[in-house]
Amino acid sequence: QVQLVESGGGLVQPGGSLRLSCAASGSIFGIYIMGWYRQAPGKQRDLVATITAIGNTNYADSVKGRFTISRDNAKNTMSLEMNSLKPEDTGVYYCNVRKGSYTYWGQGTQVTVSS
Question: 37: which residues sit within 8 A by CB, 6+ positions away?
């Protein structure tokens, strides 16, 4: 069993920055992928970025060059640094872990980009 808790969301002006964090606890075992997903109002939940246990990353085209995903395996944490934020980045951001046939989600943290 894995528990994921996100933090760091909030209200920010366009062009601003935020850093989201995800703390994982429980029975994390073996190789697994961590990632961030977001769900804008009225839209589906979409991938933002993923990172493997050895640090290979993948980003949605809409955030390339602006967002950076990272993880600390010793502390079981993951972060998402978001720069040059745009109104279309607004949504609930979810931490995700995929391990074998199992998928785990955090509760989500709200990010609102507005003037």
Answer: 45, 46, 47, 48, 93, 94, 96
| Top-confidence residue, 29 or 77 | 77
For the chain, the helix, strand and coil percentages under 3-state DSSP, each to the nearest 5: 5, 55, 40
b/e per residue 91-104 (b: at least 16 CB within 10 A): bbbbbbbebeeeeb
Residue 26 pLDDT greater than 90, yes or no: no
| pLDDT given at position 35 | 97
Average pLDDT of the chain?
Answer: 95
Strands 102-105 and 109-113: unpaired
How far is residue 29's CA from residue 32's CA, in Å, rounded to a whole number?
8
